[in-house]
Sequence to fold (495 residues):
Amino acid sequence: MIRSWCARPYIWLFLLLLPQIFGMILIPFSGTSEPRYAEIARLMAEGGDWITPWFEPGVPFWGKPPFSFWVQALSIRLFGLNEWAVRLPSWLGFLAILAAIHALARQYSGLRTARWAVVVYASCALPYIAGVAVLTDPFLTLGTTLCMAGLVLGQWYWRALGFAGLAIGLLSKGPLAGVLVAGSVATGWLICRQTQWPRMSGRVWIWGVAVVIALVLPWYVLAEQKTPGFLNYFLLGEHVLRYLDPGWQGDLYGTAHVEPYGSIWGFWLMATFPWGILALAVLLFAVGRRSGRQSLRKALADPLTAYLLGWSIFTLLLFTFAGNLLATYTLPAIPAFSILMGRTLATWQESPMKLWLAGPPRYVALTVASIVPAVTLITSLTTSLQPSLINTERELVRYVRGASRENVNLWYINTRPFSARYYSRGAAELVPVEQVSTRLERMEGDVYIAVRKRQFDQIQHQLPPSSLKTNIESKKYVLLIFPGNSRETRSREKP
Fold:
């Protein structure tokens, strides 16, 4: 039975995606990025402002263009406010990336390579996780992948999808999309100095670029008109200053991540786990053998191989000297790596080495491809049973909403996580500890107060003595309740 499954990579693909779908449904929004972007999409869906994403009411979000928020807000309106609805657009984009990888790999090296390429991409750590995450990077990757595939594949619909992909990239991350595409093509050309892939006529280029401008430019103009200062912050700040200055003081959203120069290569190994480690081992093995070095030189002389290699490494080269860095920056490079790795597995399967390795498709690759989905499945089941293990406020907010008879009075003292904002639908308030007593005098009904565990002992004496500690807590916060009758009693006791 296992032997027959091992011969069918598409069955693997289906099995690989099941834990991903479970995670999309079961894992709550946690940390910073996912709940932050989910909250921006929620505000867009509820407010109906499709031009300006809002960081919070009255504060525009200038950090990213709106494409990801558009599709997430639309999904919320169609399917309601829940985790899987907000994550669904990313997953659909993930499937579209797999389709583009399959089409390009099949033209590059045949059906067997195409099958292995989609399995590799679908089981790499970062694509697997980001494929169901509320982030902007999956849509940048979708855009650049469609564009890079459209430049090579000769069919008219792939040409159209290529220009559409460029528009998606420009509306997801901005000019970075154009830089990644142009730099990848240029790097591929520098590797072998040949351009044998299909060329587009000047007429196609003119019409394609015109369509891209028509799709992208209006939003940039309208965004600047509605919130003046957007273009200066986004183009200069987010694209230049953030790249050059690790300590950039102009960051409006406190999301800078300073990493040592060159960290992008380590991030790539983590992002491509487990396949990146295997690829590095194969490369070192090939370099150490004369026949291997000859095979590498022959491969680099092939224009399409050079094209894919340029696509794989340019993003890493670009961010080698970046001042601020995230692991997700490696994502646009992984589709090309997956095709190259798929070609390696297909060649490996056909080589004499399969006799003593029992065939990588049968055992080795099955084990490698199963690592990330297995970990995801375990994580999904664990967090669904024990949400307090991760940094989310979902269960705490649900408790307060269920316990509140009327309006939800939920205060976060001094700090308020994005997940609290999202799950409370904006009802959770940020209140400085010194204002608690004064504000309580004006409140009706019970007030629930969330305090960071590590700050509780420090500020406990500043909280009203009638506050009662509940047995409800999240990973970082403990929940107190200030009963309404206690406040009424205290008011009557005043002279």
